[in-house]
Amino acid sequence: MQWPSYFPDDCPRKEAEPKKIKVYRLVNHDPPTEKDFIPSKKRKPNEKFSDDCLASGLSCYTSYKEIIQLKEMTPYFRRKKIAVGFTHTNFGVVLRTPASTGKSHHTYWICDGASPHVLFKVVREGEEQ
Questions:
Q1: CB-based contacts of 19: which residues, under 8 Å, 6+ apart?
Q2: pLDDT in the model for residue 101
Q3: Is 52 left (phi over 0), alpha (psi -120 to 50) or beta?
Q4: What pLDDT score was predicted for residue 18?
Q5: In angstroms, rounded to a whole number, what is the distance separating the alpha carbons of residues 114 and 108?
Q6: Burial bucket for residue 21 (CB in 10 Å: 0-12, 13-18, 19+)
Q7: Whole-prediction pTM value?
């Protein structure tokens, strides 16, 4: 896989694997667009992150309950929509990266040219998929 040029050295993490898992992600659009799948490191290239490799990936959750809690507890996320989809083995690699926002947090590193948004759809509130 060819990784984007903004990825730091040794990123993605060597433990990350290309695998298909069901994940939830907060998005702005229905249906999700490419803009909903731009990592923080690319959106804010001059910002200092505590971990540039994690910032180069996408935050996802395997627990619907945890992403609901994140949305409800964080004012910045309240207007966002919840999308559900699958990671794709040809689009990148994924690693469980538990965070203060949830134990089911995963980081999904997307390779150049991949379009993960086509594999996601917005979930209506209360409709766990």
A1: 87, 89, 93, 94
A2: 85
A3: alpha
A4: 97
A5: 12
A6: middle
A7: 0.92
